Amino acid sequence: MTSALDRLKQHSSIVADTGDIEAIRKHQPEDATTNPSLLLKASEMPAYQAYLQRAWDYAKSVETDENKQLELACDYFAVLIGKEIADIVPGYISTEVDARLSFDTQAMIAKAKTLLSLYQKEGVSQDKILIKIASTWEGIKAAEQLEQEGIKCNLTLLFSQAQARACADAKVFLISPFVGRILDWHVANGLEKPTDPLNDPGVQSVRTIYEFYKRHDYKTVVMGASFRNTGEIIALTGCDKLTISPGLLEELGQLTDAQEYLLDNDYPVEAKPAPLSEAQFRWLHNEDAMATEKLAEGIRAFAKAQEELEARFKAL
């Protein structure tokens, strides 16, 4: 009997949202994504202690300043994990820029190039890498410049229509609109958890972005992310890509009686709206309380994970 995962694979590209290499080998996704929280989890697993030590030894051999050592060690650890994943998946591996740089365009550009140089050192082609950047105005501008230089980007922590529009204006390769964190915010603010995933505000947000992109013929790839349950994922069947945790991939693989959904992909093409100015972007994003709060919260959480990973290197 066909599983929900098998059906999803017929209509969307499946991406593993994990830093666990063995989980990726098991599920054989097309692409994989990591983030600082996932890398921190990987650093706590016995299987990856050798990567930690190798990254730390390399950083100390190259840098004398302790802060620069920690920064380089974290970058190299992310790349070492990414290299192993790149050897398994046929498509892309997304590696994230330090969230503490999220409001500094030039620093994000420099960090992206550092990550790519480390990947090159490990023999991984730039064609396999997506540089993952928070969807602040500064992050979107960094991605716009990187894309112009042929470096593909994945814009993450995306919650608002303003963010989605600005990313399309910037011609970024891919966006990762979050689903579960949007639901979390609405539940925390009084919404009863919906029984129908089509009433899930996170699902509705991604479906709206997807339709907007298709109606206006934007080429940016839409990759639904941050899922809380299988219903949210299944309700986005047909989205360009879906990045899913190993636990939910397991559940989908065992689910055979799920309700079927499929996003429409046959929209009449309309003229693109004028690009958003910085002032327009900031105002529209500011008007969305959920998006404003979740973007800030996400940046803080990823920054904290980065600091905790640095602490692990200090303890070596």
Mean pLDDT: 97
**CATH topological fold name:** TIM Barrel
CATH domain class name: Alpha Beta
Helix content: 40-55%
Largest sheet: 8 strands, parallel, barrel
Distance between the termini: 49 Å
Given the C-alpha coordinates, what overall shape results?
Answer: globular
Contiguous runs where pLDDT drops below 50 for at least 5 residues = none
Keywords:
316 residues; alpha/beta; TIM Barrel; eight-stranded parallel beta barrel; 8 strands
Explain how this protein is built.
- Keywords: Cytoplasm, Pentose shunt, Schiff base, Transferase.
- Its main location: cytoplasm.
- It catalyses: D-sedoheptulose 7-phosphate + D-glyceraldehyde 3-phosphate = D-erythrose 4-phosphate + beta-D-fructose 6-phosphate.
- It is a single chain.
- With 316 residues, the protein is of the alpha/beta class.
- The protein has one domain (4-314): Aldolase class I (TIM Barrel), CATH 3.20.20.70.
- 53% of the residues lie in helices and 11% in strands.
- The chain contains 14 helices and 8 strands.
- It has an 8-stranded parallel barrel with strand order 1-2-3-4-5-6-7-8, surrounded by 9 helices.
- α6 (105-121) packs across α7.
